[in-house]
């Protein structure tokens, strides 16, 4: 197995994004160490830290930082000389997997990085053994968690994406867990669980974000009063709006308008 490039504890700034098509036979294993925004099958999801993704050479790798720096461990490698071993593994490609033991994976990647840059005469054999251990670990996580995550989340992707679009298109509505659950025909508890799993935030936090984003837009582009902005974003109470805006944005609506 040939390692093409790799990084351990790589830190990318908040503006980082990548949309790259792999070369033939090029695979990539990525372990998130912070939240990040990823695209799978054209659908954007926010993944939490300690998520494992194994990309093969059939899809673009599309991901970016989310609310701050993006930190990850990653290895790009060629499988052409070890196709038989790769084919023997029950791996899930191009889908997020919850790393059941992220410290173990992190340690393996650290050891691979150290060995990769060493001058040890046994370096090729050691690297091959470490890579096989790493991919075997990915298979183990796939067996224990990956298939469950796919069957649990994927059937609801479209409905959740449409729900989120409705929330952001209509921040003035009185969204609550009950109305959102009814919209996608789910129980309250299941919606709350799967919404966070897919988007990395709670559904109520997303409702608040939709209102604040709309408020920022109105404040920047119109001369509406703060009271009017609050009403347009679905707030019955101006003071509640001002408190929530400052908590999320860090400044009052009036100060935000002056600085925008």
How would you describe this protein?
This protein is an alpha+beta fold. The protein folds into 2 domains: 2-154, Regulatory protein AraC (Jelly Rolls), CATH 2.60.120; 170-259, Homeodomain-like (Arc Repressor Mutant, subunit A). Helix content is 50%, strand content 21%. The chain contains 10 helices and 9 strands. The protein has helices at residues 83-88, 102-116, 123-153, 157-169, 177-183, 188-199, 203-221, 226-232, 238-249, 253-259; strands at 2-12, 17-20, 26-32, 36-40, 43-47, 51-55, 61-65, 70-78, 96-98. The strands form 2 sheets. It has a 5-stranded antiparallel beta sheet. A 4-stranded antiparallel beta sheet has the order 2-7-4-5. A hairpin with a 2-residue loop joins strand 4 and strand 5 (43-47). Helix 2 (102-116) runs antiparallel to helix 3 and helix 7 (203-221) crosses helix 9 (238-249). The chain is elongated and about 70 Å long. The termini are far apart. The model is unreliable at 143-153 (pLDDT under 50).
Topology:
Elements: E1 2-12, E2 17-20, E3 26-32, E4 36-40, E5 43-47, E6 51-55, E7 61-65, E8 70-78, H1 83-88, E9 96-98, H2 102-116, H3 123-153, H4 157-169, H5 177-183, H6 188-199, H7 203-221, H8 226-232, H9 238-249, H10 253-259
Antiparallel strand pairs: 1-8, 2-7, 3-6, 3-8, 4-5, 4-7, 6-9
